[in-house]
Every structure is written in C-alpha cells, then in structure tokens.
Amino acid sequence: MNTERIDIVSGDREKGIRRAGEILKQGGIVAIPTETVYGLAASAFDDEAIKKVFIAKGRPQNNPLIVHISDMDMIISVAEDIPELAIKLAEEFWPGPFTMVLKKKNTIADRISAGLDTVAVRMPSSNAARDIIRSSGLPLAAPSANISGAPSPTTALHALSDLDGKVDAVVLGEDCTVGVESTVLALFTDPPRLLRPGAVTAEELYRFIPDLVIDRAILFEPEIGKTVASPGMLYRHYAPKTQTFLVNCTDEQFVKLVNSKENCAAICFSDEAADISGKKIVYGDKDDKESLAHNLFSALRDVDSLRAECVYVHAPNKAGIGLAIYNRLLRAAAFKVINL
Ligand code: AMP
Ligand code: MG
Q1: Which of 59-63, 101-105, 232-236, 317-321 has the lowest mean pLDDT?
Q2: What pLDDT digit, counting tens, does each position of 273-298 carry?
Q3: Looking at the domain that runs over 243-339, which CATH code has it been given?
Q4: To test the ligand 1 pocket, which listed residue (36, 54, 195) has its Cβ within 8 A of the most ligand atoms?
C-alpha cells in the first residue's frame, strides 16, 4: 500500500487536516499526532476500519482501543450511564492525557472493546488531534501508531518507520510533548481503579478519588493464567531488541555497574553521563521527570543502533509521572529488575 504523507508543519495545515478527515470518513486508517504518543486512528463506528488497525499493528484482538473525542458532546455517541465523577474529572483533566473507561454504547464497533462491555474514552489536548477528529466528524479509535510490542512513537518519523506501507496515511505533525501514553482510569468499578499511569498522576487523582485503587499490574508481573483489568498490561511492550535491565540504585552505583560491564550500554540521567565510559543515551534530568517521559521512547528506539549486548536503564523514582516511566520501563525490560 502507498502511504500518503500529510505534512501539517511545513505544508498547508488546513488542507492536511481536511485530507486526513476525508480518508478517515472513507474508512481509511491514519497515523496522527497527539500530545502523548502518535496514534493510529480509524472511525469508531467502522468495524472494518478498526480491523485494519489491528492488522497494521499486529495487535492482539483482545487488547481494546481508546476512543478519542474532540468535544464533550461527542461522549454520548460512545459511552452511556456516565457517572457524575466522570464529568467532574473531564472538567479537570480534559482536554489532556487522561482516559476514562466507561460503559460502552452499542453503536461503536465491537472490535474496539475486544469483547468487553466498556469503552475507554479520551479528549486529547493536541490541537492537531482535535482538529483531525472534528474534520472527520467522528470519534476516532486510536492505539499507539507502532508495531505491537515496539516502543510507542513520539515523532512522525517513528510512526513512519513502523507503519510505512501498512496504513493509508501518516500525518507529519509536531513531536509529542508528553511522550508516554495517557493515564487510564476504570470508572465502572467501585472504587475506581488506576489501570495505567500517565502524565495525569495518581497523586492528582487522589484529590478527587481518596479511595482510588492502584491496579497490581502497574508494578507487578501478571500471574500466569490470571485475567487483568486492562488487557494491554498482559503483553511484552515498549521493548528494544537489545536485552534490557531496569536498575534501581544511586548515581554512583549506576556508574560503577555500567563501567564494569563490557559492551553493555546505558540509558542514564544527564548528571551521571560524563562518568560513564561506554555507550550511553541520556534520557533527561532525574529531577525533571517530564523530560525523562518526553525522551523515554526515543531512547528505547535508539538503543538498538548502539549494537550493545545489553542495556541498563537507570530507573527514576516512582512519584508523579515517575510511576508511568517506571511502568513502561518494567515492560521494556520484561520485568528484569536489578536492585542495588
Ligand atoms: P494503546 O492505545 O496502545 O495506548 O493501548 C490502550 C490501553 O488502554 C491498553 O492498555 C488497553 O488495555 C487499555 N484499554 C482500552 N480499552 C479498555 C477497556 N475497555 N477496559 C480496560 N482497559 C482498556
Ligand atoms: Mg500501545
């Protein structure tokens, strides 16, 4: 398939947004920028288009998709029995990197929910994303625009490198500002449950939901044979090809560990980089966890080009957006953790 490039940065933005909307209306699939990661979008009402999304990504059929809306009134076309709390949280965190799992409406394509009777809904803060949704006039189901299992794409080039030839178009927009996927909160359970950490932090949610439950799967390996609340957490994910280890330790310990290994690379903090003698990628300042989140997936993609036997990643602390970074790194490392 010839994948159309729609450049909305150096090309005509309005024309590009209109073109993306047209392709989506016609049942095509289009990679689009959002503030979290690039998404692979399709009409939430078109089961055939949704099927193409699963095929292009190689995504397991039982891993449901998030539906993206541009305006609050769109929510009633995808979800029903919306609780008061959802409205309150939407007022606080939308548009933004925050997804709520609600009771689904039967009008949406079955495949989106992968057999569940719930639907995940988000209103992105990216203007490009919301403009494309508006231009299509449709709620858009959009998982991350990567090959299933690979690190999520945070630039148009990442999306192109995974999906060129497999999708109708890629919108060449700005790099993603946040860099990790949205926070996912299940609201159909009582008390509500955090299924995936993101830039809207657990600490922020506690202000509205004092009895918030943090799903076990965020920090622990799923037990074999057990079902999980968020099927996406079952899978090896975000993983470079290079064998990856997550390391909990001080700067001094990290430098000592990586300098003692031959032909292993490091993904490290800026303040320790000068002391690391081997191959390394700096992913940000340890006191600026937004920068770590922003660069995380690029670092995981770039590490394979270092051709190292393995890579050690220095773990941030788990406060704030640190929980989201730690959660992604655990999966990238397939739960191989070194505690010093
Ligand atoms: P992605 O779009 O690739 O970021 O993946 C979407 C994430 O949202 C996955 O981890 C899914 O398991 C989760 N998700 C989507 N819909 C639901 C749902 N109805 N119930 C629980 N989790 C969901
Ligand atoms: Mg994904």
Answers
A1: 232-236
A2: 999 999 999 999 999 999 999 999 99
A3: 3.40.50.11030
A4: 195
For residue range 131-184, what is the model confidence (pLDDT) as tens digits? 999 999 999 999 999 999 999 999 999 999 999 999 999 999 999 999 999 999
Closest CA to 238 of 131, 311, 172, 130: 311
Long-range Cβ pairs for the range 199-203 (8 Å, 24+):
199/36, 199/96, 199/97, 199/290, 199/293, 199/321, 199/324, 200/93, 200/96, 200/97, 200/98, 201/320, 201/321, 201/323, 201/324, 202/323, 203/319, 203/320
C-alpha 230/C-alpha 246 separation (Å) is: 23
Closest listed ligand to the CA of 151: 2
CATH number attached to the domain at 4-179? 3.90.870.10
Q: Which ligand is nearest to the CA of 327?
A: 1
Given this model, what pLDDT does residue 223 score?
Answer: 76
In the predicted structure, residue 199 carries a pLDDT above the cut 90: yes
CA of 211 to the centre of ligand 1 (A): 22
Distance 148 CA to ligand 2 centre (A): 7
Ligand positioned closest to the Cα atom of 34: 1
Q: Which ligand 1 atom sits nearest the alpha carbon of residue 143? A: 2
Segments making up each domain of the chain, as ranges = 4-179, 243-339
CB atoms within 10 A of CB 66: 25
Which residues sit with their C-beta closer than 6 Å to ligand 1? 63-66, 101, 113, 116, 118-120, 143-144, 181, 184, 195-196, 230-232
Of 198-202, 233-237, 268-272, 333-337, where does mean pLDDT reach its minimum? 233-237
Distance, CA 64 to ligand 1 centroid (Å)? 5
